Hints:
By secondary structure, the protein is an all-alpha fold. The chain has helices spanning 2-31, 37-40, 59-80.
Amino acid sequence: MKIVIKAFVASFFIHALYICSVMLIGFLKTSQYKPDLVNAWNHDGALQNEVSFGTVVSPSVYALTFLGTGLICAIVIMFYKKPV
């Protein structure tokens, strides 16, 4: 049972690191975005007033990756566990 808890804690930290890195990348892309307003006036279309980066993933995918990462972490912990 101890291996399962350690594996899910490791999986939680891996997912937290992933989510924080995605948010940081999105923040950096958004803060460094410079719209091309000079050339946009030459076109007849409407000017863009919103910017979005990224994709939307179903929450069930995150649940499956959490369980899969936990399984991989449990296997790694079992192989690297020192004999007592």
